[in-house]
Amino acid sequence: MEYFDTLSVYDRLARAGLPDAASRELSDIFKDNYRQQLEFLATKRDIVDVKKDIADIRKDIADIRKDIAELKTTTETNILKSKNDTIKWVAGLMMAQAAIIMGGVGVMIKFLK
User: Fold this and answer.
1) Which is the most buried residue in 3, 30, 56, 84, by most CB within 10 A?
2) What Cα–Cα distance (Å) separates residue 91 from each residue in 31, 77, 83, 94?
């Protein structure tokens, strides 16, 4: 709850010898300044809300880390599969090439006899 004792400020200013109007005006100025400063203070509710937001962000970060780990695993699996497929294709092409060469050698041997 906002509270500023303007009467106390007024009394102190009056005891210091300031005229009544000046004491009232300065008391109001101090009160207005006090209210403005209150706008910048965090309430307990603000702190609870910020803590909840931080907890939500931490959960989101944990979820993102999990997604990244899954993506990494999937990517590594896909790379390994592609590597194996490439090796199979290269081996198959080498065998086909060897068969073609052997066939060509066989044909050349027949012509040379």
Assistant:
1) 30
2) 88, 21, 12, 5
